[in-house]
Structures are given as structure tokens and as C-alpha cells.
């Protein structure tokens, strides 16, 4: 953990906070460099399963334009993954009175500052978990 003020957060800080967020949710989190994003998420050991999600972490200044989303969406189509856009927000103790929300808080830095990670999933028809119930013919056989 580094000594940072909320004003001086870097993209590396946001990636670390996001990594902790998804680790706390039970994912195995690895670098997404080979897929053109910051992180990839695995439901199990990477040797046993493919990653289903690419995570793009929004920079501290909140900048993200439509070109970035279009580029990332095209990348995840070719890799068969779902894109998750992660936005890190600082929260106070008062905003997390709900137990469910409190479980999502990540403490980071020294002194610790409290953050939540808002997630936006952007899926395409080729991404995981988007199965269509379409009959496909193979020779004389019909596959459901």
C-alpha cells in the first residue's frame, strides 16, 4: 500500500483498488495486457479455465470517450470476452451504512481511504453468458 491522497491517485492506484475489489469477489485477477485492457478475470485457475472478462479501469480524471469504448468492445469480440468498465469512487463512512454496500468497500493507502468500484458490463452477442437458443443443423442432425 502506498501513501496517497485522494487527489494524487494514479491509474496504478485505481488498478490496485480494482484488483482488490475483484479478488474480494472471488475472481483470480491477472494482467490484461495481452488482451488490450488492464485486467482479466478468471473464475478458477487460469490453467483450468479461460478468462471470461476483460476489465478497463477508468483513469482518475474520469476521461473516457466513445472511441475508447468502441476500441475495447471490438477487442473483446475477437477474444470472446465481456468488457467490464470499472470506475473507482471514494466513499465516506456515511454513504455505506447498508451492510451490502459496506462489503464492497476497498480500503487503500496509508492512511486508508475507502473506495467502491462501480462496474459496467458491455457484452456482445459473441461474449460469454450470451447464449441464444437457436437450432443449428449439422448434416442430418439438429443441435439444440
Describe the structure.
The chain is α+β, with helices and mostly antiparallel strands. Helix content is 22%, strand content 28%. It is built from three helices and eight strands, in the order H-E-E-E-H-E-H-E-E-E-E. The protein has a six-stranded mixed β-sheet. A two-stranded antiparallel ribbon has the order 7-8. A hairpin with a 4-residue loop joins strand 5 (106-108) and strand 6. It is globular and about 40 Å long. Mean pLDDT is 81; it is low at 1-5 and 136-144.
Précis, in short:
With 144 residues, the protein is an alpha+beta fold.
Radius of gyration: 18 Å
Shape designation: globular
Count, helices? 3
Helix content: 10-25%
- The oligomeric state is single chain
Order of helices and strands: HEEEHEHEEEE
Distance between the termini: 51 Å
Overall pLDDT metric: 81
Structural topology:
Blueprint: H1 11-24, E1 28-31, E2 39-42, E3 53-57, H2 66-79, E4 82-90, H3 99-102, E5 106-108, E6 113-122, E7 136-138, E8 141-143
Parallel strand pairs: 3-4
Antiparallel strand pairs: 1-2, 2-3, 4-6, 5-6, 7-8
Features:
disordered N terminus, 144 residues, globular, two-stranded antiparallel sheet, 22% helix, six-stranded mixed β-sheet
Amino acid at each position: 500500500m502506498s501513501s496517497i491522497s485522494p487527489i494524487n491517485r494514479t491509474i496504478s492506484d485505481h488498478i490496485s483498488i480494482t484488483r482488490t475489489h475483484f479478488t474480494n469477489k472471488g475472481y483470480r485477477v491477472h494482467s490484461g495486457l495481452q488482451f488490450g485492457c488492464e485486467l482479466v478475470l478468471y473464475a478458477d485457475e487460469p490453467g483450468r479455465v479461460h478468462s471470461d472478462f476483460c476489465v478497463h479501469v477508468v483513469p482518475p480524471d474520469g476521461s473516457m470517450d466513445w472511441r475508447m469504448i468502441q476500441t475495447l468492445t471490438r477487442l473483446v469480440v475477437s477474444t470472446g470476452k465481456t468488457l467490464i468498465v470499472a470506475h473507482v469512487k471514494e466513499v465516506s463512512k456515511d454513504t455505506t451504512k447498508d451492510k451490502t454496500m459496506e462489503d464492497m468497500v476497498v480500503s487503500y493507502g496509508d492512511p486508508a481511504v475507502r473506495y467502491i468500484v462501480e462496474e459496467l458490463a458491455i457484452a456482445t452477442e459473441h461474449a460469454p453468458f450470451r447464449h441464444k437458443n437457436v437450432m443449428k443443423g449439422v448434416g442430418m442432425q439438429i443441435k439444440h
